[in-house]
Design goal:
By secondary structure, the protein is an alpha/beta fold. The chain has 15 helices and twelve strands. Strands 1-4-5-6-8-10-11-12 form an eight-stranded parallel β-sheet. The chain has a two-stranded antiparallel sheet with strand order 2-3. Bound molecules: alpha-D-psicofuranose and manganese (II) ion (2 copies).
């Protein structure tokens, strides 16, 4: 763990500049009748989970270029997330992927989590790879497979994931299904859906009542003709069939170009079926780039919809599970995750600043320009000092990346761990 003194020393260096920016924002928001501390408190409460598989350098099928110091096991992944959380005070949980993160000693892991001020977020199943000595292959599908013995194996694996989750006090199972087909005619589309629905129902029945199943969709990849769960409509219909604690998971990169994601978010919240969110950035497809790096305005519009739904008492949507799901091929993974969380919080902060009364009025009166300008005005407001202040007040760094670099944390990790490569996507 990092000594808090180091964070404070770096904060002192940045304090004067930070105060200058914050004072301007305080005055600006005050003129708009917004209490800055109320916004800061909301930012402090917003926590984004870090997936265990994002702590190592990602890769493409053409290569992987690790920087060194990657976590070699679950314990070191937890330490990395602990470090991120210490720096930004906004990443208080880690998502696990089974079998990559099977805990060898659940009690020891729980103690380590506690020492790092963390909890387990979701447990993610993996039926997109065959594991060593697996009796049947997932080559032609898992929960949707034509053969019941393969489906049963995949169902059993998901149930096992819930068991691991129970040991570590998680309450969420995330299912992202890689099943699909590569060529027309390969798969009977309706039957594949029905088999998947039946398999998910079996898993759901074995989950404790206070657990949530998140069902993630993705339009293509690894299959390029059809995916069994390609879109939010399919996820939604499966949730409806499976049970009330099944929710749709939206991954920002899992949409075809130019999809109106904010509208999907609005629809799902309206139905009370938006359960979770995977943040990343997308240029062409499931690129897993840094959140907010490509289409920041769209990202803001998505957050605007989320905040609108969360603040509307008539919307009966459960609290959402927030997670980053990105991959870092050319950046330091920890720096990229810090950057992503910062982009998420800054965008959330902006969405909190939207004057919803004025917006509702403009919408009601069909004042198109005013409605749009209300959104543009907050989007163009520099809200970074709010996030820095939230972190500072919570005991974190004013500038987490500068502190990470200034304290030479990566080289310390390389000295300790060497150049081994972490498991990940
Ligand atoms: C594959 O596309 C993927 O990125 C999905 O988004 C999942 O959430 C993640 O892998 C982990 O299984
Ligand atoms: Mn995802
Ligand atoms: Mn993905």
């Amino acid at each position: 763990m990092l000594s808090n003194d180091i964070i404070q020393q770096h904060n002192e260096k940045l304090q004067a500049d930070h105060q200058f920016r914050l004072a301007y924002l305080t005055e600006l928001l005050d003129r708009k009748g917004i209490d800055i501390q109320t916004i800061i408190d909301k930012i402090k409460a917003f926590q984004v989970a870090i997936p265990s598989w994002a702590l190592g350098t990602g890769g493409t099928r053409f290569g992987r270029f690790p920087n060194g110091g990657e976590p070699r096991n679950l314990e070191e992944k937890i330490e990395d997330v602990g470090l991120i959380h210490q720096l930004n005070r906004s990443s208080n949980s880690i998502s696990l992927h089974i079998p990559w993160d099977i805990p060898s000693d659940a009690n020891a892991i729980k103690q380590l989590l506690k020492a790092n001020d963390l909890t387990i977020d979701s447990v993610n199943s993996n039926t997109f790879q065959d594991q060593k000595d697996q009796p049947y292959s997932y080559k032609f599908g898992s929960l949707s497979h034509t053969k019941s013995e393969v489906r049963d194996l995949a169902i059993e694996h998901n149930i096992q994931c819930v068991e691991y989750g129970k040991m570590l006090d998680s309450k969420v199972l995330t299912v992202w299904l890689a099943d699909g087909s590569n060529f027309p005619g390969q798969s009977h589309l309706r039957s594949a859906y029905q088999r998947t629905s039946d398999s998910l129902s079996s898993i759901y029945k074995s989950m404790p009542d206070d657990w949530t199943m998140l069902i993630e969709y993705k339009p293509y990849e690894p299959h390029f003709y059809s995916m069994v769960i390609p879109d939010w409509g399919t996820s939604y219909s499966l949730c409806q069939t499976v049970g009330k604690n099944a929710q749709v998971l939206v991954d920002l990169g899992h949409h075809l170009p130019n999809t109106n994601i904010e509208q999907i978010v609005g629809r799902l919240m309206h139905f009370g079926r938006l359960g979770g969110f995977h943040f990343n950035g997308s240029m062409y497809g499931d690129d897993d780039l840094t959140t907010g790096s490509i289409k920041p305005y769209q990202f803001f519009l998505i957050f605007n919809e989320l905040v609108d739904g969360m603040q509307d008492p008539s919307v009966k949507n459960p609290p959402l599970a927030w997670m980053i799901d990105a991959s870092h091929n050319t950046k330091d993974p920890i720096e990229d995750l810090l950057q992503s969380v910062n982009a998420i919080l800054t965008t959330y902060a902006k969405a909190l600043l939207v004057d919803r009364v004025a917006l509702a009025d403009a919408q009601e009166n069909n004042d198109v320009l005013r409605a749009e300008e209300l959104l543009r005005d907050t989007f163009l407001t520099d809200a970074r000092a709010l996030v820095a202040e939230a972190s500072r007040q919570a005991g974190g760094a004013i500038d987490p990346i500068a502190t990470f670099r200034g304290a030479k944390i990566r080289s310390g990790l390389v000295d300790k761990r060497g150049f081994s490569v972490a498991t990940g996507l």
